[in-house]
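@channel sequence for tomorrow's demo:
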Amino acid sequence: MGLVRRLGRKVVSRLTERSPSPRVPETHHRSTAEPVHRDEPEVDRGGPPCVLADADALKDAISGPGGLRLVNHWATWCDGCVEELPLLLELHERIGDRVEFIGVSWDGFQGSLSGEDLLEEVRSVSVEHGLLWESLVVDMEPEGFFSALDLSCQTIPQVWLVNESGSVFFRLETVMNRAAMERLMGALTADR
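C-alpha cells (generated this afternoon):
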C-alpha cells in the first residue's frame, strides 16, 4: 500500500507542478533560527517550504525565542496524522495570524527515501492537503532526535503549543479531534 500511495502522490505532485501554486503567507511570528539545509538548497516547487533539519535547527525553531508556536509532529505515512490535517487547517484559519505553525516531519524514520526525494514526498502531501506552513524534515536517527528534544512520547501525531520563551505549555499526544482542538484553544487563552 505504501508504494501505491507514494506513486499516487508523485502523480498528484507532477500535476500540481504544472498549475499555479498558492502563495504561502509569511507570519510576523517567524522564528529567527533558520533550519540547516543539507545537500542542495531548497528548490521552490510550490506549496509550503520543506527543508531537512538537524537537532540544532529543530531545537531553535521549536524552543528558541519567538512568538507563540503550534508544532505539529507528523509524517505522510501516519494515517492519524493525515486524518487530523483538516482540523489543523481549521485551527490555522482561526489562529494563524497570531500563532506560527511549524510541521516537524518524521518521514525519514520509515521508508527508503532520503534527500530531495524525501523532501518531495513531504511537499507533495502538504500540497495535496493544502497545508500553509513549513515542515522541518528530521534529518537524523530517531534515537538522537528523541534525545535532543527530550521526547517522552515517541509516537505521532503530536501537537505542541510553545510560548514566547520557548517552553511547551500544551501537548496533545494522540490524533486530534474536535474536543482536543477546543482544549488546545482553551490552553491558548489560559495563563502560560
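heads up for whoever presents: The domain at 47-189 is CATH 3.40.30.10 (Glutaredoxin).
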